[in-house]
Amino acid sequence: MTNKKEIEFSTGASSRGSHQLGAALSCEILWALRYHQRLRPVASKPWQLLGTLVHTCLAHYFASLMDEPPQWSLDETMDENLEREGEGNPEMIRQAKDCFEAFKMRYAGDSWIPLYVENEFKASIGSFFKHEEMPEWIEPVKDEVVTCKVDLVCEWGGRVWVVDHKTSSGNSRTGRLNSWGSGSEYTMSPQVFQNLWIIRSCIDRPVAGFAIQRLKRSTPYDFDRQTLQLSPIAYDKARYMIADATLRERDIKKRIEAGEKPRPNYNQCYSRWGPCDFFSVCSADTARIQSSLLDTEYVQLGGK
Ligand code: SF4
User: Fold this and answer.
1) Ligand 1 centre distance from Cα of residue 289 (Å)
2) Which residues of 133-165 are buried (b: 16+ CB within 10 A; e: fewer)?
3) Residue 302 has pLDDT above 90, yes or no
């Protein structure tokens, strides 16, 4: 593999988060390429880059409101961070900053008090269970550590909330965000469940729940924030899903390291977010083309 470079601080990347466990449950090839070989596409989709840049602005903004800002926010200014992440895309950096300025105006005098910004939390699977309630099948992975990196944990109305920023294109007809409806898109989200299980294991204050801060990323700007009404039953069962995914991941890794090829799941190649990051590789005509694509179109994350 050639053409690989180390990737520095970025919003969003968690070392062993819900996306990784989700990949283990959905497609072995996806898991192997993305989390075993640690490959990422060189070119991100334009809307993804804009979303990343808006997240970067928000991360620096909320970090700057803390009494003790996290080290990453001191190592690099917001502008330096944007320049690096948006290299070669000055127009997109400008759009992200415009959206961010509109956000600041909309929430001037905000009551959110940031407690953690872009912080990675870690917890063992065993910490999700009282000893007597842990089924035997979970024992082998009880010491495995799972992680989440959340946009923001803040105090809001005297309670602690986990917040995820979501940028969206909004509704082309009304120019506003799409109506929130029941928020069902997020109420059964593995990311929401995993983050809450981990953060509740890590923080010594009660965590009230999960909130979504939505931002329409183009003019006319529109913003809203909503708390999620999660099913207590689904939330409770999510810890079993996390354990199950970890067992599955362990099995895939063992087989790959024994020389077996990971198996595809073509049900997962195309979602409402568009094609899987490795769509062009898996749909190539020959192994040679696949290898060439992997060499030229992907970078490898640094570290282990
Ligand atoms: S394109 Fe399909 S088969 Fe290939 S990694 Fe993605 S989900 Fe798996």
Assistant:
1) 16
2) ebeeebeebbebebbbbbbbbbebeeebbbbbb
3) no
Query: Tens digit of pLDDT for each residue in 21-77?
Result: 999 999 999 999 999 999 999 877 777 889 999 999 999 999 999 999 999 999 999
The two three-digit tokens of residue 177, written as one number = 């965000």
| CATH architecture of the region 12-300 | Alpha-Beta Complex (3.90)
Domain ranges of the chain: 12-300
Distance 22 CA to ligand 1 centre (A): 13
Q: What is the pTM of this model?
A: 0.89
- Whether ligand 1 lies within 6 angstroms of the CB of 35 is answered as no
Report which ligand 1 atom has the smallest distance to the Cα of 28. 8
CA of 256 to the centre of ligand 1 (A): 16
User: Could you identify the atom of ligand 1 that is nearest to the CA of residue 26?
Assistant: 7
- Report the alpha-carbon distance of residue 27 to residue 269 in Å, rounded: 9
pLDDT single digits (tens) 273-296: 789 999 999 999 999 999 999 999
pLDDT range class, residue 301, cuts 50, 70, 90: confident
Residues 6+ apart with CB under 8 A from 278: 29, 30, 33, 34, 39
Strand partners, 179: none
